[in-house]
Amino acid sequence: MYKITCIIHSLGIGGMERVMSILLNDFVQREHIEVTLLLIGRDRVVEFDLDKNIKIFRPKFTFDHTKRNWSTLKTMWFIRTNIQRIQPDCILSFGEMWNNLVLMSLKGKKNKVYISDRSQPNKNLGRLHNTLRNQLYPNASGFIAQTSQAETIAKNNNWNKNIAIIGNPIRVLDLPDVEKENLVLTVGRLIPTKNVDQLINIFSNINNQDWQLQVVGGNAKQLNLLGQYITQVKILGKTEQIKLLGQQKDVEYYLAKSKIFAFMSTSEGFPNALGEAMAAGCACIAYDCVAGPSDMIDDGENGFLIPIGNKDLFQQKLKILMQNQVLREEFSLKAKEKMKIFQADKIALEFYKTITL
C-alpha cells in the first residue's frame, strides 16, 4: 500500500481548498493508495464532499491567539508526531506560510515533501516568512508551481531544483440551457486587488445602452466594498445598467447567460474564475497580472490580455468585444478548447505522477 498524506490549513470554501479536495478524491480512487489528510489551521473545517476512505487528522487543541507561539509549537508537534505515526511515502503541502510550518516541523526527517504556493508567486510574506521560505524551500523534495511565471520566480529565488508546472483543475460546469445576453460579467471576492471600481468606471465610460455589467461576489476581509460600489454606481447614474449581485451560489447561471467576462485583478496565483469563464464559452478580457492569465489567454487568439494599469486599452478592447459578435464567438470556441488541458482528471494525474515518482 502506497501512502499519500496531504496537508492544508482547512478545507473551507476557497480556490486552494477546492483544488486539494479534487486531488484527495482522485488519489484515493487509485489502486493500492491510502490517503490521509492533516488539517493544521485555526478552522479545521471540511466544506467539500470527501471520499469516506480518506482519513482526516485534526489537532485536538484550539489554536489560542493569546498564546500564538505556544499554539504554533503544538501544531508543529502535531504534524511531526502524526507523520511519524502514518509513515507516508510522500507528502503534499499547500500554502506558502503553511509550507514553512510543515518543513520546519519535519526538519531532520527523511520524508518526501512536495510543496505548492497557491497565491501570487512573488507575494511579500513579511521578513520572517520570506526568510524561512528562502531557507526551507530548497530542502523540499519538489516545488509545484501553478504557472510559468511562478516557475520563473521560484528558479530566480533558488527555492528548489525540482520544479513542476501544474495549473489548477478547471471544473466541468453544468451550465443551464439559457440564451446568451448582452452581459459583461465579473466574478470574485470583493477585495481591492480585483479592481471592480475600475471596471465599473470603464463600463460606464463605454456607455453602450444595449449592454449590462453584472458583478457577482460578496464582501471579504471585513471590508464593505459592496456598499461602496453600490454608491459608486448610483453616483454614476447607472443603476439600470450595472448590477451588484453580491455572493451567488449559482455562478454557472451567470456564466451561461453572459457573452463577455471581464477580469481586472492584479494579484492571482491561478484565477479559477477566469478559467471557468473560458470553459463556459465567455469571450474574456483580463489584466496580465502575476500570475495565471497569460497561461490561459493567448492574447488576440482566445481572449485579450491587457498590461496591468492600462485602463484606456482595457476600455478600448472591451468596447471592441461588445461591438464585434464574430470576434466574441471566435474567442469563445478557442477558449473552451484551451481549457481542456486543465480538466480535473488530467491535472490530478499530473500531481499524482509528480509526487509519487
What proportion strand?
Answer: 15-25%
**CATH 4th-level superfamily of the largest domain:** Glycogen Phosphorylase B
- Relative helix content: 40-55%
Main beta sheet, described?
A: 7 strands, parallel
CATH architecture of the largest domain: 3-Layer(aba) Sandwich
Low-confidence stretches: none
- Basic shape: globular
Number of strands: 13
Largest beta sheet: what is the strand line-up?
Answer: 3-2-1-4-5-6-7
End-to-end separation: 15 Å
Helix-strand makeup class: alpha/beta
Mean pLDDT rating:
95
CATH topology of the largest domain: Rossmann fold
Q: State Rg.
A: 21 Å
Q: Would you list the SSEs in sequence order as H and E?
A: EHEEHEHEHEHEEHEHEHEHEHEHHH
> Given this structure, which CATH class of the largest domain is correct?
Alpha Beta
In total, how many domains does the architecture comprise? Answer: 2
Domain Glycosyl transferase family: 178-337
InterPro entries: Glyco_trans_1
Protein name: Galactosyltransferase
GO molecular function: glycosyltransferase activity
